[in-house]
Amino acid sequence: MKILLVEDDKQTADYIAKGLREHGNVVDLAGNGRDGLYLATGEKYDVMIVDRMLPAMDGLSLVKAARASSVRTPVLFLTTMGGIDDRVSGFEAGGDDYLVKPFAFAELLARVGALARRPPIVAATSLSAGDLEMDLLARTVTRAGRRIELLAQEFKILEYLLRHAGEVVTRTMLLEKVWDFHFDPKTNIVETHISRLRSKIDKGFDKPLLHTVRGAGYVIRSPD
Amino acid sequence: MSSDRQIRSQNWNLGRILRSASFRLPLIYAVLFVLSAGALFVTVYWTATAAMQTDMAAVLRTEAYQLAEVHRRSGLAGLAEQITRRINFRTRGPIFYLLQAPNRRVVVGNLPGMPPVDGVVDFVPQTDTPEPEAEPSKLTGFGLTLSDGSFLLVAQDADRLTAMQHAIARAFVWASGLALLLAIAGGALIGSSFLRRIDTITRTSLAIMEGDLSARIPVRGTYDEIDQLVSSLNAMLSRIQQLMDGLRQVSSDIAHDLRTPLGRLRQHLEDARARATTTADYDAATDAAIEEADELLETFSALLRIAQVEAGAQKRGFAEVDLSELARSVGEAYQPAAEDSEHTLDCQIEDGVKLAGDRQLLAQMITNLVENALRHTPAGSTVSVSLRRTAPPGFEIEVADNGPGIPEDEYGKVFDRFYRLDRSRSTAGSGLGLAMVKAIAGLHGLIIRLEDRKPGLGVVLMSS
């Protein structure tokens, strides 16, 4: 993957770039907004990671300008903590996701992966992984032909995991996408739902589909 | 600071009163009044003068024609005799006469001779006789050339006119002088009382600038504009003080309550340095340190959010939120977690309760209350979330439990930052959850009420 990272703090930038490269990505680094915009409009990237606070041109203006020049690359904003309004303004400027600093690297990696392989816009009517089938119209789930009854929130979790099958989905991504909670509850509500979901779809089957990636999140993977 | 001293040393002297707005206004009105009085004066003056002149001319004309009639009947000698009589007995008041023969010789009269002029004439007689009546400076006369060519002049003192003109002018000067004086004195009086009150405001604001945030400007109780201004200034000061106190509280909270986790973090790192011998030891110590650091960051983040919410900036982003849907979604989210900790989570949600607010914050508010109830009640307890309508358009949302509850004298404190009941010291939690609830409720105008459920605690948030 080719990633543009626009971050003015040298230490943070190096840390992120190093981690991304270790995971097989090509990373271009820009230390200010102007250079970032130059690269964003001149080169072709899979994902852009843009800090909100930048010298020369702030992150919001950069993304607005890039979007105005028809750059469609998915954008992940990095924001400082506490900025409750940052999320909305980031989306309004054309950002696709956001991450509050400081963050766990696994979180960044999972979100960059999800942005780069965003599912096609065409609406699928069914999703599947291995012998698990989800019918989005009838809102039913079967595994190996056997009907599985899921609660509404479990269905939503499974749907999101299936849409990102093979990718790591983090706890906070699920909180945001399933519950629209953009804050961090103290209770492990995601874990408790996952464990129920797991017992429903994996229990009694030889090969588990739902895996926990330690320190990162969850992934649905076909057994083969 | 030099400008402060300047304000302070400035007593309310005359110069300041003259400059003050409340004085300038009456002064402007006084000047306007004097100007309009002046216009009135000019009108009255000219009208009165003209009327009096016409009146005098009529009197003189009548007298002249009467005498002309005497002349027609009795001739020049008869007329002279008649005039002499009129002069001597002043039968017609202070009227002056002159009868001149055609050769301009004065036949009779108490005026010096003059060239004959017919009709009304204003003149100053060229006196050479020191007669007291002949002294007036200005006369108005009516001249008539008689049938035999002799000239008759009847004149009257113009002093009456002048006296009247002077009287009008004097009245005007006095009246406008008095008005001006009253305006100035009144303006000074109003101005000085106004200034005294402004001075109080200035003094109070200086006291506040010097650090006495509790100072307030006295209200007079007259409910006038200044009182209204003072009331809103005082309200503003209260708000500022509240925010400042909050800020001070946060600073000292941070100093006190973050020392412990920071100390623990240091401990973990020190342990790793001193005791770890295997990679597993290092991993364990690092994980513990990361966990501690995350908790610290979470606490910081929570403090920042509380401060932001208290500052009220989110109100800009308020939109309609379906509270029923939100409460139900929170309830469903916590169902498995509640079951795992052997709690019963019971939701009684009425449909369609909506309010203008921030969805994220409201979600966090309900979440915090539910978490708080789950965390502080033993296994087997029931936590209930209910949303019900009260008198329209009101509603109340309640999170209640049947756990041990809290002592009533702690009710006021549980919403303070970092406040924790003694028995909860050992349980997890930052002590910020309820502080966040209070801040969010305040932002949305919700009133918090704590109720003893006997057993248990009910936290009720009422729409106001």
What does this structure look like?
The complex is a heterodimer of chains A (224) and B (464). Chain A is α/β, with parallel strands linked by helices and 224 residues long. In chain A, 38% of the residues lie in helices and 23% in strands. Chain A folds into two domains: 2-116, Response regulator (Rossmann fold), CATH 3.40.50.2300; 126-220, Orthogonal Bundle (Arc Repressor Mutant, subunit A). Chain A has helices at residues 10-22, 33-42, 59-68, 86-92, 105-116, 152-163, 171-178, 189-201, and strands spanning 2-6, 26-30, 47-51, 75-80, 97-101, 126-129, 132-135, 140-143, 146-148, 169-170, 210-213, 217-220. In chain A, the strands form three sheets. Chain A has a five-stranded parallel sheet, with helices on both faces. In chain A, helix 2 (33-42) packs parallel to helix 3. The relative contact order of chain A is 0.10. With 464 residues, chain B is of the alpha+beta class. Chain B folds into two domains: 1-210, no CATH class; 313-463, Heat Shock Protein 90 (2-Layer Sandwich), CATH 3.30.565.10. Chain B has helices spanning 2-9, 14-19, 21-89, 159-209, 225-257, 259-275, 279-311, 323-340, 359-375, 433-443, and strands at residues 95-100, 106-109, 119-123, 139-145, 151-157, 319-322, 344-349, 354-357, 382-389, 395-401, 446-452, 457-463. The longest helix of chain B has 69 residues, at 21-89. Mean pLDDT of chain B is 83; it is low at 1-9. The chains are: A alpha/beta (224), B alpha+beta (464).
